[in-house]
Amino acid sequence: MSYDDLMLDKLNEECGVFGIYGHDHAPELTYYGLFALQHRGQESAGIAVADGRELLHHKGMGLVTDVFLNDRLSHLQGNRAIGHVRYTTAGDSRIENAQPLIFNFRAGTLALAHNGNLVNAGQIKRYLERQGSIFQTTSDTEVIAHLIARSAYDEIELAVKEALSMIKGAYALLIMTKDKLLAALDPNGLRPLSLGQLGDSYVLSSETCAFDVIGANYIREVEPGELIIIDHNDLRSERFTNQTQRTICSFEYIYFARPDSNISGINVHLSRKELGKKLAAEAPVEADVVTGVPDSSISAAIGYAEATGIPYELGLIKNRYVGRTFIQPNQALRAQGVRMKLSAVRKVVEGKRVVMIDDSIVRGTTSSRIVKMLREAGATEVHVRISSPPVIHPCYYGIDTSSREELIAAKHSVEEIREAIGADSLAFLSIEGMLEAIGRSDAAPNRGHCLACFTGRYPTEIYTEERETVLK
Protein backbone atom coordinates (compact mmCIF):
# COMPACT_ATOMS: atom_id res chain seq x y z
CA MET A 1 0.00 0.00 0.00
CA SER A 2 1.42 3.35 -1.01
CA TYR A 3 0.88 6.62 0.81
CA ASP A 4 -1.54 7.63 -1.94
CA ASP A 5 -3.49 4.43 -1.21
CA LEU A 6 -3.65 5.48 2.43
CA MET A 7 -5.04 8.89 1.44
CA LEU A 8 -7.69 7.17 -0.66
CA ASP A 9 -8.80 5.23 2.43
CA LYS A 10 -9.64 8.45 4.26
CA LEU A 11 -12.29 11.01 3.47
CA ASN A 12 -10.57 13.92 1.76
CA GLU A 13 -12.02 17.40 1.64
CA GLU A 14 -11.69 19.56 -1.44
CA CYS A 15 -10.07 22.78 -0.30
CA GLY A 16 -9.82 25.84 1.92
CA VAL A 17 -10.25 29.54 1.15
CA PHE A 18 -8.88 32.69 2.76
CA GLY A 19 -9.38 36.36 1.96
CA ILE A 20 -8.46 39.76 3.38
CA TYR A 21 -9.45 43.31 2.43
CA GLY A 22 -7.72 46.55 3.36
CA HIS A 23 -4.33 45.53 4.76
CA ASP A 24 -0.90 46.66 3.55
CA HIS A 25 0.44 43.13 4.08
CA ALA A 26 -2.48 41.29 2.48
CA PRO A 27 -0.34 38.84 0.42
CA GLU A 28 1.79 37.84 3.41
CA LEU A 29 -1.20 37.42 5.69
CA THR A 30 -2.96 35.32 3.05
CA TYR A 31 0.13 33.12 2.88
CA TYR A 32 -0.03 32.54 6.64
CA GLY A 33 -3.78 31.96 6.44
CA LEU A 34 -3.33 29.31 3.76
CA PHE A 35 -0.57 27.70 5.79
CA ALA A 36 -3.08 27.33 8.65
CA LEU A 37 -5.57 25.75 6.21
CA GLN A 38 -3.05 23.40 4.59
CA HIS A 39 -4.78 20.34 6.07
CA ARG A 40 -7.76 21.04 3.81
CA GLY A 41 -5.78 20.56 0.61
CA GLN A 42 -2.22 19.66 -0.31
CA GLU A 43 -2.27 19.37 -4.10
CA SER A 44 -2.12 23.03 -5.13
CA ALA A 45 -2.12 26.52 -3.70
CA GLY A 46 -2.54 30.03 -5.01
CA ILE A 47 -2.96 33.70 -4.12
CA ALA A 48 -4.51 36.56 -6.10
CA VAL A 49 -3.86 40.17 -5.06
CA ALA A 50 -5.49 43.47 -6.07
CA ASP A 51 -4.29 47.03 -5.54
CA GLY A 52 -7.25 48.97 -6.96
CA ARG A 53 -5.78 49.09 -10.47
CA GLU A 54 -4.94 45.52 -11.47
CA LEU A 55 -5.07 41.94 -10.28
CA LEU A 56 -1.91 39.84 -9.88
CA HIS A 57 -1.68 36.17 -8.98
CA HIS A 58 0.58 33.19 -8.50
CA LYS A 59 -0.36 29.54 -8.07
CA GLY A 60 1.25 26.15 -8.43
CA MET A 61 1.15 22.47 -7.56
CA GLY A 62 2.21 21.36 -4.10
CA LEU A 63 2.14 22.73 -0.57
CA VAL A 64 1.91 26.43 0.24
CA THR A 65 5.58 26.53 1.18
CA ASP A 66 6.53 24.88 -2.12
CA VAL A 67 4.42 27.14 -4.30
CA PHE A 68 5.72 30.35 -2.70
CA LEU A 69 9.41 29.50 -2.46
CA ASN A 70 12.07 32.19 -2.56
CA ASP A 71 10.70 35.64 -3.43
CA ARG A 72 7.57 34.65 -5.33
CA LEU A 73 5.35 36.26 -2.71
CA SER A 74 7.19 39.58 -2.99
CA HIS A 75 5.96 40.00 -6.57
CA LEU A 76 2.37 40.18 -5.33
CA GLN A 77 1.57 43.70 -4.17
CA GLY A 78 -1.80 44.98 -2.99
CA ASN A 79 -4.00 45.56 0.05
CA ARG A 80 -6.59 42.88 -0.71
CA ALA A 81 -6.11 39.22 -1.54
CA ILE A 82 -7.78 35.83 -1.75
CA GLY A 83 -6.05 32.45 -1.49
CA HIS A 84 -6.83 28.80 -1.96
CA VAL A 85 -5.51 25.34 -1.08
CA ARG A 86 -6.91 22.43 -3.06
CA TYR A 87 -7.51 18.74 -2.86
CA THR A 88 -8.93 17.34 -6.09
CA THR A 89 -12.44 15.91 -6.15
CA ALA A 90 -14.01 17.69 -9.12
CA GLY A 91 -11.55 18.12 -11.97
CA ASP A 92 -8.09 16.74 -12.57
CA SER A 93 -5.04 17.40 -10.43
CA ARG A 94 -3.24 19.81 -12.74
CA ILE A 95 -2.07 23.40 -12.77
CA GLU A 96 -5.01 24.65 -14.89
CA ASN A 97 -7.38 23.70 -12.06
CA ALA A 98 -5.32 25.31 -9.29
CA GLN A 99 -7.12 28.27 -7.73
CA PRO A 100 -7.86 31.12 -7.51
CA LEU A 101 -9.10 30.95 -11.08
CA ILE A 102 -8.50 34.20 -12.97
CA PHE A 103 -10.79 35.46 -15.75
CA ASN A 104 -11.03 38.53 -17.95
CA PHE A 105 -14.48 39.77 -18.90
CA ARG A 106 -16.17 43.01 -19.87
CA ALA A 107 -16.05 44.52 -16.37
CA GLY A 108 -12.37 43.71 -15.83
CA THR A 109 -10.50 40.86 -14.17
CA LEU A 110 -12.09 38.44 -11.74
CA ALA A 111 -10.52 35.97 -9.29
CA LEU A 112 -12.51 33.08 -7.78
CA ALA A 113 -11.68 30.70 -4.92
CA HIS A 114 -14.21 27.95 -4.16
CA ASN A 115 -14.55 25.34 -1.43
CA GLY A 116 -17.12 22.68 -2.21
CA ASN A 117 -18.66 21.01 -5.21
CA LEU A 118 -21.54 21.90 -7.55
CA VAL A 119 -23.92 19.01 -8.14
CA ASN A 120 -25.33 20.52 -11.35
CA ALA A 121 -22.04 21.75 -12.83
CA GLY A 122 -22.12 19.17 -15.62
CA GLN A 123 -25.59 20.19 -16.79
CA ILE A 124 -24.74 23.90 -16.74
CA LYS A 125 -21.42 23.33 -18.49
CA ARG A 126 -23.06 21.42 -21.34
CA TYR A 127 -25.65 24.17 -21.74
CA LEU A 128 -22.98 26.90 -21.80
CA GLU A 129 -20.86 24.98 -24.30
CA ARG A 130 -23.84 24.74 -26.63
CA GLN A 131 -24.13 28.51 -26.28
CA GLY A 132 -20.51 28.96 -27.36
CA SER A 133 -18.63 29.06 -24.06
CA ILE A 134 -15.12 27.61 -24.12
CA PHE A 135 -13.84 26.09 -20.88
CA GLN A 136 -10.15 26.22 -19.98
CA THR A 137 -10.27 23.88 -16.96
CA THR A 138 -12.11 20.77 -15.79
CA SER A 139 -12.99 22.39 -12.46
CA ASP A 140 -16.63 23.03 -11.61
CA THR A 141 -15.57 26.46 -10.29
CA GLU A 142 -15.17 27.72 -13.85
CA VAL A 143 -18.91 27.27 -14.36
CA ILE A 144 -19.50 30.05 -11.83
CA ALA A 145 -17.16 32.41 -13.70
CA HIS A 146 -18.92 31.80 -17.01
CA LEU A 147 -22.32 32.47 -15.44
CA ILE A 148 -21.06 35.75 -13.98
CA ALA A 149 -19.51 36.79 -17.29
CA ARG A 150 -22.70 36.01 -19.23
CA SER A 151 -24.93 38.00 -16.88
CA ALA A 152 -26.79 40.99 -18.30
CA TYR A 153 -25.96 42.93 -15.13
CA ASP A 154 -22.94 45.21 -15.11
CA GLU A 155 -22.79 45.45 -11.31
CA ILE A 156 -20.73 42.55 -9.99
CA GLU A 157 -23.05 42.00 -7.01
CA LEU A 158 -26.08 41.50 -9.26
CA ALA A 159 -24.16 39.31 -11.68
CA VAL A 160 -22.97 37.10 -8.80
CA LYS A 161 -26.48 36.83 -7.36
CA GLU A 162 -27.79 35.74 -10.74
CA ALA A 163 -25.06 33.11 -11.05
CA LEU A 164 -25.70 31.80 -7.53
CA SER A 165 -29.39 31.40 -8.31
CA MET A 166 -28.46 28.89 -11.02
CA ILE A 167 -25.98 26.67 -9.21
CA LYS A 168 -26.73 23.92 -6.70
CA GLY A 169 -24.50 22.14 -4.25
CA ALA A 170 -21.86 23.16 -1.74
CA TYR A 171 -19.87 26.35 -2.02
CA ALA A 172 -17.99 28.69 0.24
CA LEU A 173 -16.99 31.20 -2.41
CA LEU A 174 -14.63 34.18 -2.50
CA ILE A 175 -14.70 36.52 -5.51
CA MET A 176 -12.33 39.46 -5.99
CA THR A 177 -12.26 42.26 -8.54
CA LYS A 178 -9.73 45.07 -8.63
CA ASP A 179 -11.73 47.00 -6.03
CA LYS A 180 -14.14 44.59 -4.29
CA LEU A 181 -14.10 41.37 -2.31
CA LEU A 182 -17.26 39.24 -2.19
CA ALA A 183 -18.05 36.14 -0.14
CA ALA A 184 -21.00 33.77 -0.50
CA LEU A 185 -22.16 30.61 1.25
CA ASP A 186 -24.58 28.09 -0.28
CA PRO A 187 -28.19 27.97 1.02
CA ASN A 188 -27.43 24.88 3.12
CA GLY A 189 -24.16 26.14 4.57
CA LEU A 190 -22.56 22.79 3.78
CA ARG A 191 -19.02 24.17 4.05
CA PRO A 192 -17.78 26.45 6.84
CA LEU A 193 -16.89 30.11 6.23
CA SER A 194 -16.18 32.71 8.92
CA LEU A 195 -15.76 36.48 9.02
CA GLY A 196 -13.09 38.14 11.13
CA GLN A 197 -11.38 41.49 11.59
CA LEU A 198 -7.75 42.56 11.90
CA GLY A 199 -7.57 46.22 12.82
CA ASP A 200 -9.58 47.99 10.12
CA SER A 201 -9.27 45.03 7.74
CA TYR A 202 -11.85 42.31 7.15
CA VAL A 203 -10.82 38.67 6.92
CA LEU A 204 -12.65 35.60 5.61
CA SER A 205 -11.57 32.01 6.16
CA SER A 206 -12.79 28.44 5.87
CA GLU A 207 -11.71 27.94 9.49
CA THR A 208 -11.16 30.19 12.48
CA CYS A 209 -7.72 28.68 13.13
CA ALA A 210 -6.41 30.98 10.38
CA PHE A 211 -7.64 34.01 12.35
CA ASP A 212 -5.57 32.90 15.33
CA VAL A 213 -2.46 32.54 13.18
CA ILE A 214 -2.62 36.14 11.89
CA GLY A 215 -4.02 37.69 15.08
CA ALA A 216 -7.48 38.49 13.71
CA ASN A 217 -10.63 38.59 15.82
CA TYR A 218 -13.56 36.35 15.00
CA ILE A 219 -16.78 38.26 14.25
CA ARG A 220 -19.28 35.65 13.10
CA GLU A 221 -20.03 32.90 10.61
CA VAL A 222 -21.17 33.73 7.11
CA GLU A 223 -24.82 32.66 6.97
CA PRO A 224 -26.31 30.25 4.43
CA GLY A 225 -27.61 32.20 1.45
CA GLU A 226 -25.63 35.31 2.42
CA LEU A 227 -23.58 37.50 0.10
CA ILE A 228 -21.01 39.77 1.74
CA ILE A 229 -19.61 42.71 -0.23
CA ILE A 230 -16.51 44.54 0.98
CA ASP A 231 -15.22 47.70 -0.73
CA HIS A 232 -14.03 51.19 0.15
CA ASN A 233 -17.50 51.89 1.56
CA ASP A 234 -16.98 49.21 4.24
CA LEU A 235 -18.86 45.91 4.52
CA ARG A 236 -22.47 45.16 3.74
CA SER A 237 -24.50 41.98 3.86
CA GLU A 238 -27.19 40.95 1.38
CA ARG A 239 -29.18 37.81 0.64
CA PHE A 240 -29.18 35.97 -2.67
CA THR A 241 -31.86 33.59 -1.39
CA ASN A 242 -34.13 33.29 1.62
CA GLN A 243 -34.74 29.58 1.09
CA THR A 244 -32.09 28.32 3.44
CA GLN A 245 -31.61 25.42 5.83
CA ARG A 246 -28.32 24.93 7.64
CA THR A 247 -26.93 21.44 7.00
CA ILE A 248 -23.18 21.69 7.59
CA CYS A 249 -21.08 18.64 6.74
CA SER A 250 -20.84 16.51 9.88
CA PHE A 251 -17.28 15.52 9.03
CA GLU A 252 -16.10 19.08 9.62
CA TYR A 253 -16.48 18.23 13.32
CA ILE A 254 -15.44 14.58 13.02
CA TYR A 255 -12.39 14.84 10.80
CA PHE A 256 -11.79 17.78 8.44
CA ALA A 257 -11.41 20.87 10.59
CA ARG A 258 -8.36 21.58 12.71
CA PRO A 259 -8.89 20.89 16.44
CA ASP A 260 -8.25 24.54 17.34
CA SER A 261 -11.01 25.80 15.00
CA ASN A 262 -14.50 26.73 16.16
CA ILE A 263 -17.61 26.04 14.06
CA SER A 264 -20.88 27.65 15.17
CA GLY A 265 -19.17 28.52 18.42
CA ILE A 266 -18.30 24.86 19.07
CA ASN A 267 -14.64 23.98 19.48
CA VAL A 268 -13.67 21.08 17.23
CA HIS A 269 -11.30 19.45 19.75
CA LEU A 270 -13.88 19.52 22.52
CA SER A 271 -16.61 18.19 20.24
CA ARG A 272 -14.34 15.29 19.25
CA LYS A 273 -13.69 14.54 22.92
CA GLU A 274 -17.46 14.35 23.40
CA LEU A 275 -17.70 12.00 20.42
CA GLY A 276 -15.21 9.74 22.20
CA LYS A 277 -17.14 9.92 25.46
CA LYS A 278 -20.40 9.10 23.75
CA LEU A 279 -18.68 6.21 21.95
CA ALA A 280 -17.48 4.90 25.31
CA ALA A 281 -21.04 4.96 26.62
CA GLU A 282 -22.39 3.15 23.56
CA ALA A 283 -19.55 0.65 23.05
CA PRO A 284 -17.50 -0.02 26.20
CA VAL A 285 -14.93 -2.81 26.28
CA GLU A 286 -12.47 -4.22 28.82
CA ALA A 287 -8.99 -3.15 27.80
CA ASP A 288 -5.64 -1.94 29.13
CA VAL A 289 -4.89 1.06 26.90
CA VAL A 290 -6.65 3.47 24.55
CA THR A 291 -4.88 4.94 21.53
CA GLY A 292 -6.00 7.10 18.62
CA VAL A 293 -5.02 7.09 14.96
CA PRO A 294 -3.14 10.39 14.47
CA ASP A 295 -4.05 13.14 14.14
CA SER A 296 -7.81 13.62 13.83
CA SER A 297 -8.72 10.76 16.18
CA ILE A 298 -6.55 11.81 19.13
CA SER A 299 -9.24 14.02 20.66
CA ALA A 300 -11.87 11.27 20.48
CA ALA A 301 -9.42 8.79 21.97
CA ILE A 302 -8.79 11.12 24.92
CA GLY A 303 -12.54 11.42 25.44
CA TYR A 304 -13.00 7.65 25.31
CA ALA A 305 -10.20 7.15 27.83
CA GLU A 306 -11.59 9.79 30.20
CA ALA A 307 -15.06 8.23 30.10
CA THR A 308 -13.88 4.66 30.66
CA GLY A 309 -10.93 5.24 32.97
CA ILE A 310 -8.70 3.22 30.65
CA PRO A 311 -5.33 4.99 30.28
CA TYR A 312 -4.74 6.91 27.07
CA GLU A 313 -1.34 6.39 25.44
CA LEU A 314 0.40 7.33 22.20
CA GLY A 315 0.31 3.84 20.78
CA LEU A 316 0.58 5.04 17.19
CA ILE A 317 3.01 7.66 15.91
CA LYS A 318 2.60 9.60 12.66
CA ASN A 319 5.54 10.37 10.41
CA ARG A 320 4.93 14.06 9.69
CA TYR A 321 7.51 14.25 6.92
CA VAL A 322 5.82 11.95 4.43
CA GLY A 323 4.61 14.00 1.48
CA ARG A 324 1.84 13.25 -0.97
CA THR A 325 4.06 10.66 -2.66
CA PHE A 326 7.26 8.84 -1.88
CA ILE A 327 9.60 6.50 -3.74
CA GLN A 328 8.89 2.77 -3.47
CA PRO A 329 11.75 0.99 -5.23
CA ASN A 330 10.07 -2.35 -5.78
CA GLN A 331 6.91 -4.35 -5.25
CA ALA A 332 8.35 -6.10 -2.19
CA LEU A 333 8.54 -2.76 -0.36
CA ARG A 334 5.19 -1.45 -1.61
CA ALA A 335 3.22 -3.42 0.99
CA GLN A 336 5.23 -1.71 3.72
CA GLY A 337 3.93 1.71 2.69
CA VAL A 338 1.68 2.04 5.74
CA ARG A 339 4.77 2.02 7.96
CA MET A 340 6.00 5.13 6.20
CA LYS A 341 2.90 6.89 7.50
CA LEU A 342 2.37 5.29 10.92
CA SER A 343 4.29 3.16 13.36
CA ALA A 344 3.25 1.41 16.57
CA VAL A 345 4.98 2.09 19.88
CA ARG A 346 5.85 -1.44 20.96
CA LYS A 347 6.50 -0.63 24.63
CA VAL A 348 3.03 0.91 24.87
CA VAL A 349 0.97 -1.85 23.25
CA GLU A 350 3.02 -5.00 23.88
CA GLY A 351 1.09 -7.50 25.98
CA LYS A 352 -1.89 -5.10 26.18
CA ARG A 353 -5.53 -5.18 25.18
CA VAL A 354 -5.75 -2.11 22.97
CA VAL A 355 -8.72 0.08 22.06
CA MET A 356 -7.92 1.78 18.75
CA ILE A 357 -10.03 4.89 18.09
CA ASP A 358 -10.43 6.14 14.53
CA ASP A 359 -12.74 8.78 13.07
CA SER A 360 -14.09 6.70 10.16
CA ILE A 361 -13.74 3.59 8.03
CA VAL A 362 -14.12 4.31 4.34
CA ARG A 363 -12.64 1.45 2.33
CA GLY A 364 -11.19 -0.58 5.20
CA THR A 365 -7.67 -1.14 3.88
CA THR A 366 -5.93 1.25 6.28
CA SER A 367 -7.81 -0.11 9.31
CA SER A 368 -6.71 -3.64 8.55
CA ARG A 369 -3.09 -2.54 8.17
CA ILE A 370 -3.13 -0.69 11.48
CA VAL A 371 -4.76 -3.58 13.32
CA LYS A 372 -2.11 -5.89 11.91
CA MET A 373 0.63 -3.43 12.91
CA LEU A 374 -0.61 -3.30 16.50
CA ARG A 375 -0.71 -7.11 16.69
CA GLU A 376 2.83 -7.35 15.29
CA ALA A 377 3.90 -4.89 17.99
CA GLY A 378 2.62 -7.32 20.61
CA ALA A 379 -0.99 -6.25 21.29
CA THR A 380 -2.93 -9.24 22.62
CA GLU A 381 -6.31 -7.81 21.58
CA VAL A 382 -7.27 -4.94 19.27
CA HIS A 383 -10.74 -3.42 19.69
CA VAL A 384 -11.64 -0.83 17.06
CA ARG A 385 -14.04 1.99 17.90
CA ILE A 386 -15.13 4.53 15.27
CA SER A 387 -16.24 8.02 16.38
CA SER A 388 -18.74 8.39 13.52
CA PRO A 389 -21.57 6.30 12.07
CA PRO A 390 -20.87 3.95 9.14
CA VAL A 391 -20.35 5.79 5.84
CA ILE A 392 -22.69 3.96 3.46
CA HIS A 393 -23.54 6.59 0.84
CA PRO A 394 -21.34 8.73 -1.43
CA CYS A 395 -20.86 12.47 -0.99
CA TYR A 396 -21.46 14.87 -3.90
CA TYR A 397 -20.53 18.07 -2.07
CA GLY A 398 -16.74 18.10 -2.24
CA ILE A 399 -15.59 14.88 -0.56
CA ASP A 400 -13.92 12.23 -2.66
CA THR A 401 -16.47 9.41 -2.31
CA SER A 402 -18.54 9.45 -5.48
CA SER A 403 -19.58 5.78 -5.57
CA ARG A 404 -21.10 3.35 -3.07
CA GLU A 405 -18.83 0.67 -4.50
CA GLU A 406 -15.90 2.37 -2.75
CA LEU A 407 -17.49 2.16 0.71
CA ILE A 408 -17.00 -1.01 2.73
CA ALA A 409 -19.94 -0.28 5.06
CA ALA A 410 -22.30 -0.02 2.07
CA LYS A 411 -21.74 -3.68 1.24
CA HIS A 412 -20.88 -5.34 4.54
CA SER A 413 -22.27 -5.65 8.05
CA VAL A 414 -20.35 -4.46 11.08
CA GLU A 415 -19.39 -8.05 11.85
CA GLU A 416 -18.17 -8.59 8.29
CA ILE A 417 -16.10 -5.41 8.49
CA ARG A 418 -14.66 -6.52 11.84
CA GLU A 419 -13.60 -9.79 10.29
CA ALA A 420 -12.16 -8.02 7.23
CA ILE A 421 -9.96 -5.69 9.28
CA GLY A 422 -8.94 -8.41 11.74
CA ALA A 423 -10.16 -6.69 14.92
CA ASP A 424 -11.36 -8.49 18.05
CA SER A 425 -14.38 -6.20 18.16
CA LEU A 426 -15.71 -3.23 16.18
CA ALA A 427 -18.30 -0.59 16.93
CA PHE A 428 -19.43 2.65 15.29
CA LEU A 429 -21.00 5.66 16.98
CA SER A 430 -24.73 6.05 16.36
CA ILE A 431 -26.11 9.03 14.44
CA GLU A 432 -28.04 10.25 17.47
CA GLY A 433 -24.96 9.82 19.66
CA MET A 434 -22.93 11.87 17.20
CA LEU A 435 -25.50 14.68 17.13
CA GLU A 436 -25.73 14.77 20.92
CA ALA A 437 -21.96 14.78 21.30
CA ILE A 438 -21.39 17.68 18.91
CA GLY A 439 -24.15 19.62 20.60
CA ARG A 440 -25.38 21.97 17.88
CA SER A 441 -28.61 23.68 18.86
CA ASP A 442 -30.10 23.87 15.36
CA ALA A 443 -33.60 22.54 14.85
CA ALA A 444 -34.24 18.80 15.05
CA PRO A 445 -33.96 16.22 13.64
CA ASN A 446 -30.61 16.87 11.93
CA ARG A 447 -29.54 19.70 14.27
CA GLY A 448 -28.06 21.61 11.37
CA HIS A 449 -26.01 18.69 10.00
CA CYS A 450 -25.77 17.04 6.62
CA LEU A 451 -26.17 13.32 7.30
CA ALA A 452 -26.32 12.18 3.68
CA CYS A 453 -23.26 9.90 3.82
CA PHE A 454 -24.89 8.05 6.74
CA THR A 455 -28.55 8.06 5.65
CA GLY A 456 -28.62 8.67 1.88
CA ARG A 457 -30.95 11.65 2.34
CA TYR A 458 -29.33 14.61 0.58
CA PRO A 459 -30.16 18.26 1.34
CA THR A 460 -30.19 19.19 -2.36
CA GLU A 461 -31.17 17.61 -5.63
CA ILE A 462 -28.45 15.32 -6.97
CA TYR A 463 -27.44 15.08 -10.61
CA THR A 464 -25.10 12.32 -11.78
CA GLU A 465 -24.01 11.17 -15.20
CA GLU A 466 -26.05 8.01 -14.69
CA ARG A 467 -29.05 10.10 -13.52
CA GLU A 468 -29.51 7.78 -10.55
CA THR A 469 -32.39 8.47 -8.22
CA VAL A 470 -31.35 9.68 -4.78
CA LEU A 471 -33.62 9.97 -1.72
CA LYS A 472 -34.35 13.50 -0.59
Automatic annotation (TrEMBL):
Domain Glutamine amidotransferase type-2: 15-233
Active site: C15 (nucleophile)
Binding note for cofactor: Binds 1 [4Fe-4S] cluster per subunit.
Residues annotated for [4Fe-4S] cluster binding in this entry: C249, C395, C450, C453
Binding site for Mg(2+): S296, D358, D359
Cofactor names: [4Fe-4S] cluster; Mg(2+)
Pfam families named in the record: GATase_6
Keyword DNA-binding among UniProt keywords: no
UniProt enzyme class: transferase
Associated pathway: Purine metabolism; IMP biosynthesis via de novo pathway; N(1)-(5-phospho-D-ribosyl)glycinamide from 5-phospho-alpha-D-ribose 1-diphosphate: step 1/2
Keywords per UniProt: 4Fe-4S, Glutamine amidotransferase, Glycosyltransferase, Iron, Iron-sulfur, Magnesium, Metal-binding, Purine biosynthesis, Transferase
Catalytic activity: 5-phospho-beta-D-ribosylamine + L-glutamate + diphosphate = 5-phospho-alpha-D-ribose 1-diphosphate + L-glutamine + H2O
EC number: 2.4.2.14
GO MF annotation terms: amidophosphoribosyltransferase activity
PANTHER family in UniProt: AMIDOPHOSPHORIBOSYLTRANSFERASE
Similarity section: In the C-terminal section; belongs to the purine/pyrimidine phosphoribosyltransferase family.
Role played: Catalyzes the formation of phosphoribosylamine from phosphoribosylpyrophosphate (PRPP) and glutamine.
Protein name: Amidophosphoribosyltransferase
